[in-house]
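Margin note: ligand = nicotinamide-adenine-dinucleotide.
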Amino acid sequence: MSTEQRPIGIGVIGCGGFGLFALQQFAQVPGVRLVGIAGTHREAARAAARRFGLPDLMEVEALLRMPGLDLVYVATPPFLHRAQAMQALAAGKHVIVEKPTAMNPAQADEMIAAARDRGLLLATNLMQRYNPLFDAVKGLLERKPLGELLHAYFENYASDEFLPAEHWFWDRSKSGGIFVEHGVHFFDLFAGWLGPGKVESAQISLRPGTTIEDQVQCTVRYGDSTPSPQSLSPAAGERGRGEGVLVNFYHGFTQPARMDRQELRLLFERGDVRLDEWIPVRATIHAVVDETDTRTLCELFPGARLDVTTWYLGKDRACSGRHKSLDIYQMVEMKYGLEDLKMHRYGDLVRAMLSDQLAWVADRSHARKITEQNGRDALALAVEADKLAHKGR
Ligand SMILES: NC(=O)c1ccc[n+]([C@@H]2O[C@H](COP(=O)([O-])OP(=O)(O)OC[C@H]3O[C@@H](n4cnc5c(N)ncnc54)[C@H](O)[C@@H]3O)[C@@H](O)[C@H]2O)c1
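Resulting structure:
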């Protein structure tokens, strides 16, 4: 019987906090059958095996020999991703690996080559692009109801409450550091919106009296493809002409869990959009718009509540910004996604990611939202930021 006719058998390597969550989502995707769990022993993973009627936890080699296994999901800490993915690919299995793809782009290239040589799937779970808000913001960038994008930031005030000092997360040799372990999600999100970027500056901050790097930040410039002319001063280096959009990324793992919060904002010529939380479900738009822009916003954010703050009549419609004359009908505040729950959206994204990747397994002409190249590119940017932050330290 061919793979296309029977369910896709999925096995998991590493069933910790996130592996358990993902497994519960994967089990709901049509055409999927869970086959087994390989992992270091842990009561919660054993309970998951019982929950899904799977055999008790096994070694990776035993999992790879399981009949009916087609795809391996790697959800171990980052330093294990390359070796375990390569082992699964060598056994002829498709692979979905948790982010980050690996510890550096050279490892990711090796994995990509191994998957391509064998005609197998390789994807990294960068599921942010499956969020409907990803498409809505992409619409703002393409249809420009708020004008051109000028600037953006992502501020991540994350929790460390469940990350004790001995957790692998703080060990750079295991996690790769915060840019690599966590930052890749947001580097990929912005790459999906703006294309490739270049790190302009990066810093890290240590928790006082320790070697724990708990805060990182960097600035990435997007959309400046102009090579720097020879005539520019050496200080301009390889940086192009300084056009494009600067985006700031901050991640700090410092908060009690109940205070974990994030804010992402894109500033345009005639307004801004703010997304709350790191799996955003809510968007707030503050803008000055004409009649056509208002209509476009309502199309991009269907069902959003639109409040009119001020309307302008006659000669009051005229104003200017960036040396451009504007004709403005009203100032609005739009709120979208107020009823949605973050954890439900999180589950949606993981299921959508798997369905999209499995569609490619069934039909190689299917264009995936996330490919192995996206995982590799986000990792390359993260490593670039990490290196720059450590330069001279
Ligand atoms: N996509 C997302 O939104 C998201 C969210 C959280 C975590 N993650 C990623 O998931 C991965 C795991 O993170 P986590 O938070 O679940 O970590 P975790 O520490 O909770 O779980 C890791 C699991 O791997 C197991 N493990 C360790 N060494 C192993 C080995 N040699 N062989 C097999 N299993 C082994 C551990 O026993 C544990 O069960 C990381 O790469 C992380 O970045 C992704």
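The first helix runs from residue 17 to 26.
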